[in-house]
Specification:
Radius of gyration of chain B: 23 Å
Strand content of chain A: 5-15%
Number of helices of chain A: 17
Largest sheet of chain A: 4 strands, mixed
Helix content of chain A: 55-70%
Strand order of the largest sheet of chain B: 6-7-8-3-9-10
Strand content of chain B: 25-35%
Order of helices and strands of chain A: HHEHHEHEEHHEEHHHHHHHHHH
Order of helices and strands of chain B: EEEHEEEHHHEHEHEEHEEEHEH
Shape of chain B: globular
Helix content of chain B: 25-40%
Low-confidence stretches of chain A: 77-89
Number of domains of chain B: 2
CATH class of the largest domain in chain B: Alpha Beta
Number of strands of chain B: 14
Oligomer: heterodimer
CATH topology of the largest domain in chain B: Rossmann fold
Distance between the termini of chain A: 22 Å
Radius of gyration of chain A: 30 Å
Structural class of chain B: alpha/beta
Largest sheet of chain B: 6 strands, mixed
CATH superfamily of the largest domain in chain B: P-loop containing nucleotide triphosphate hydrolases
Structural class of chain A: alpha/beta
Number of helices of chain B: 9
Mean pLDDT of chain A: 81
Strand order of the largest sheet of chain A: 2-1-3-4
Chain lengths: ~425, ~300
């Protein structure tokens, strides 16, 4: 075991001392944090830009335009929902009214205005209010860019203004209409593990879950591939020859797995600690700047570390096996594909699990050892799955890890000495039986 | 005392028999040449001695015990295929290899300094292998195989790629290790080197022993059947029934005689053909010649297990 320790030490120190490690450790969380707080920050500063909208008004109701203008322009300065602020709700609309005779086609005006429209015309949008706009004939929005999230904000304002005008026309008291039309937002409460409900945003859950999922996925993939490349380096440079005259191949493999695993653990440890500290102390500071910092519970971070360790050992063992089978990095590109697929699949289906975290299929998927690190982590972040499910998933993983270590060790000790062509599956099967 | 002993060892890989009923002994304090053509089973045999492979049949004994991880610190191995960690400083790297053999770091770094000085690499101590020439890397690799002061050293082509000065330096180191009672198994294709430093040899082909024994004794076994002839003039006389084959070198010819052929007869024919003879010498065949002869199987002298 002393020899395993020597190998662990080398694998760890050689990697932790590199500049790449320092950069990776610092840059990735800064990037992610930026992704989370930047939109809010930008919204606050109103960097969303300005949109000129020409309202082609055939309704003959000047108050309608005023109602729309007031709503649209006031809302832009104070986005109401967080989703809006993230997705361009900070765009400022500037509305100008152009009266069109009821028997004219508003499209003609648009054509005329856009004809030969240069760069400036591209930002120009049109809102048509038909003669019967108050009788359920929908207004139209014409613009070159329709994939703009801010349209949703505009739509809400226009809808509210039209409803207001309809109520006025029906004879409601103008002073009370504002009251009737006040939107009602659902207050969201999350039922915690203790059964207590705590107020919290759905969006915050989503962001945390996604961040944890993403970091787990990246870390497991990264460090798994690190292991594979380490094995290939030793094999390709023939260092293995010297190593295996001193240690058993299994010790070599374990030393490498643990050493590189500790590098990963150091990195995500730094991340988790930073996240914890920011959650505890930083939130207040950032709140003053107008940006919200998601509050990540400590228990989640602990699960995150646990699932990293399990996920790393499972995948790194498989990657070590791939490294032992192939003769070069180029060959590894293809050979690693099945393993990488196992990591990528949960990233493709996590939306299903997130939407329905308690369905039978979600539970089953999160129990599959190769998916558990990501999907069970996701479920833990979104809901509180029963403890037995979490424990079961971990037990299944541990058993799978033991199995794959056994197989990988046997493949490894033969593979690292084979420099020739890549073996077939049948040959790999025979390697398992070598003494 | 036999430090390394193989007794009727067989090793198979699937259908392929890499080593078949192989036996040899290496005496303590000697340099033992393990010879054979490519694919003869040398590397497999060596790998069994250093405990990388286990034999399917037979026994591999080192210092009287079956090979096991406990014996590994007593064995130093310089593989034919060699490599160093590209991005690790020489000193760190060598200390790591010593640690793996159970030498503690303080002692290891003392020895690293000593060896680097001895092989004239001290100034490269904090450099990485990528900064070194191939020959220098080779010397570093050699240090890695002896840093733990093993009793048995297995050196596979230790001189390949070295300039003559370095070859000499390393050869002296090896002879010095022998002086200190270390046992060395030396594998190479350079027969002149074997003739220079080996005490005993074992030649294997197709996984089985073809020839073995003390170097001098093996050569004697072949008898003085080789004529070294330095001459000027026609070489038509080399064709006859006396000559098995000959190697024409720029300054002389090495003529291997057929069994029972008289060397004097060759000289007579040479003179009769009008050649001017400057040198005529009857010698034992070169190891190179013995190697080729034995491997191609044209000679039926099977060596007994010598000691």
């Amino acid at each position: 075991m002393k020899k395993v320790w020597v190998i662990i030490k080398r694998e760890y120190l050689v990697r932790v001392r590199t500049r790449a490690f320092a950069i990776g450790t610092i840059v990735s969380p800064v990037l992610l944090l930026g992704l989370i707080i930047l939109p809010g920050f930008l919204a606050e500063r109103g960097v969303g830009g300005e949109r000129q909208i020409t309202v082609l008004d055939q309704s003959g109701d000047p108050k309608l335009f005023e109602a729309i203008k007031e709503r649209v322009e006031s809302r832009a300065s104070a986005p109401e929902s967080e989703g809006e602020s993230r997705f361009g709700g900070s765009t400022r609309f500037v509305l100008t009214r152009q009266i069109v005779a009821p028997d004219e086609d508003p499209n003609d005006s648009i054509k005329r205005a856009s004809n030969g429209g240069g760069a400036k015309g591209s930002e120009q949008a049109y809102l048509t209010l038909g003669p019967a706009v108050l009788d359920d004939i929908a207004p139209e929005y014409h613009a070159k860019n329709l994939s703009d999230f801010s349209i949703r904000a505009l739509e809400e304002s226009v809808s509210a203004a039209i409803s207001e005008r309809k109520l006025m026309r029906a004879g409601f008291d103008a002073t009370k209409i504002g009251l009737y039309m006040k939107p009602v937002n659902l207050k969201r409460f999350k039922i915690g593990s203790t059964g207590e409900s705590k107020e919290g945003g759905e969006r915050q859950d989503f962001m945390i879950a996604f961040a944890l999922l993403f970091f787990l996925y990246m870390s497991v993939l990264f460090y798994g591939i690190f292991v594979m490349r380490g094995v290939i380096e030793e094999k390709q440079s023939r260092i293995v020859e010297v190593l295996i005259s001193s240690v058993r191949p299994t010790q070599m493999m374990l030393g490498k797995l643990i050493g590189i695993g500790l590098v990963g653990l150091t990195q995500i440890g730094i991340w988790a600690l930073t996240a914890g500290l920011i959650s505890m102390f930083g939130a207040a500071i950032f709140a003053k700047q107008g940006a919200t910092i998601p509050n990540i519970p400590m228990s989640l971070l602990i699960y995150f570390v646990l699932y990293f360790v399990l996920g790393f050992f499972l995948y790194a063992t498989l990657y070590a096996m791939v490294g032992a089978i192939v003769a070069s990095e180029e060959e590894a590109q293809q050979a690693q594909f099945p393993v990488t697929m196992l990591i990528v699949v949960p990233m493709m289906i996590f939306g299903l699990v997130m939407a329905n975290p308690n369905s039978t299929s979600s539970i089953v998927l999160s129990m599959i050892p190769f998916f558990a690190p990501t999907l069970m982590m996701l479920r833990i972040a979104v809901i509180n799955p029963p403890v037995w499910q979490v424990i079961l998933s971990m037990v299944i993983m541990v058993v799978t890890i033991l199995g794959s270590v056994w197989v990988a060790a046997r493949i490894y000790r033969v593979g690292i000495l084979m420099y020739g062509k890549r073996p077939s599956i049948a040959e790999l099967g025979r390697w398992l039986r070598y003494s | 005392m036999n430090v390394v002993e193989l007794k009727h060892v067989t090793k198979r890989f699937d259908q392929f028999v890499a080593v078949k009923d192989l036996s040899f002994e290496v005496r303590q304090g000697t340099i033992f040449g393990l010879l054979g053509p490519n694919g003869a089973g040398k590397t497999t045999s060596i790998r069994m001695i250093v405990n990388i492979f286990a034999p399917d049949e037979g026994d591999v004994l080192v210092m009287g015990k079956h090979v096991s991880p406990e014996l590994q610190p007593h064995i130093g191995y310089l593989p034919e295929e060699r490599g160093l960690y590209k991005k690790m400083k020489l000193s760190d790297q060598l200390v790591f290899f010593a640690n793996l053999k159970g030498v503690n770091s303080a002692e290891a770094s003392r020895r690293v300094d000593e060896w680097l000085k001895r092989l004239e690499l001290s100034e490269w101590k904090n450099k990485k292998p990528t900064d070194l020439s191939k020959g220098m890397q080779q010397k570093v690799q050699f240090i890695a195989s002896v840093i733990h002061d093993p009793d048995v050293m297995i050196l596979d082509e230790p001189f390949s790629g070295l300039d003559p000065v370095s070859v000499n330096l390393l050869k002296n180191v090896i002879l010095d290790l022998k002086q200190r009672g270390k046992t060395i198994i030396f594998s190479t294709h350079q027969m002149e080197q074997v003739e220079q430093i080996c005490d005993d040899i074992c030649l294997i082909n197709h996984g089985t022993q073809v020839l073995s024994g003390g170097l001098k004794e093996v050569k004697r076994r072949f008898g003085k059947n080789t004529v070294i002839l330095d001459y000027e003039g026609p070489d038509s006389f080399l064709g006859g029934d006396l000559v098995k084959h000959h190697n024409r070198f720029p300054n002389y010819s090495e003529i291997l005689l057929n069994d029972g052929a008289d060397a004097q007869e060759v000289l007579k024919r040479a003179l009769a053909a009008g050649a001017r003879v400057n040198r005529f010498e009857l010698v034992e065949p070169s190891l190179n010649e013995i190697f080729i002869e034995s491997v191609t199987g044209s000679r039926s002298v099977a060596g007994s297990t010598g000691g």
